[in-house]
Amino acid sequence: MNDETHPVRPAPPAGAPAGPPRPAGSLWRHVALIRHWATFIGILGVLVAISQWKAEWVNTNMSEATAQGMAWIMTLLGEQGTAKGVRVGSNVCRFTIIGECTAYYPLAIYVAAILAFPSPWLRRILGIVAGVPLLLLINQVRLVSLCYIHRSFPEHFEVIHIVVWQSLIIFFTVLVWILWVLTIARRP
What does the H/E/C string look like for 111-169? Predict the structure, then answer.
């Protein structure tokens, strides 16, 4: 054996990955990212499956709780809010709260994103404890604002309800998650 044909490779620097180098564009560079996305999609799938399996709980109990919260806020605003089951009434409007009016699905997205993110468990729990009430409050603001929009601008109600607020709810869900990542999850 000749040393010229079989050169000895120097030891890799400290902290360098062991083994042969992988091509720059290889899938291996993204394995962690793919694993986190798969975890997110898996958790979200489980939460959505629970909502379908326990549809009565999501569609009734969460709708009733949302209606109670909305009635309470309307009363605070001086609008004599009342709730009976999933029906909300006030001086401003009358609504029936259905499962999609609750914050269940934005909360499912948020919780799945928190649990899939690589962070210590205590920080994940803090993110859920802080973010869930905030998203529930944002949903209540959405519903109360829809009451006033329905009264003042009924011709714009459907667009604001379906397009504007649905987009804003997703935006706020992602924003709360980003705030968690920046302030709690990545804190040294």
Answer: HHHHHHCCCCHHHHHHHHHHHHHHHHHHHHHHHHHHHHHHHHCHHHHHHHHHHHHHHHH
Structure tokens given for 23: 């091509």
The 8-class DSSP code of residue 99 comes to G
**Strand (E) or helix (H) holding 87:** strand 87-89
Backbone angles phi, psi at 3, to 5 degrees: -65, -25
Q: How many CB atoms sit inside 10 A of residue 186's CB? A: 12
Q: How far apart are CA 92 and CA 90, in angstroms?
A: 5
Q: pTM here?
A: 0.80
The alpha carbon torsion through 170, 171, 176, 177 (nearest 10 deg) reads 70
Q: Which helix (H) or strand (E) holds 96?
A: strand 94-96
Instruction: Read off the pLDDT of each residue in 111-117 and give the average, rounded to a whole number.
Output: 95
Place of tokens 């993204």: 30
Cα separation, 67 vs 75, whole angstroms: 12
Average pLDDT over residues 104-132: 95
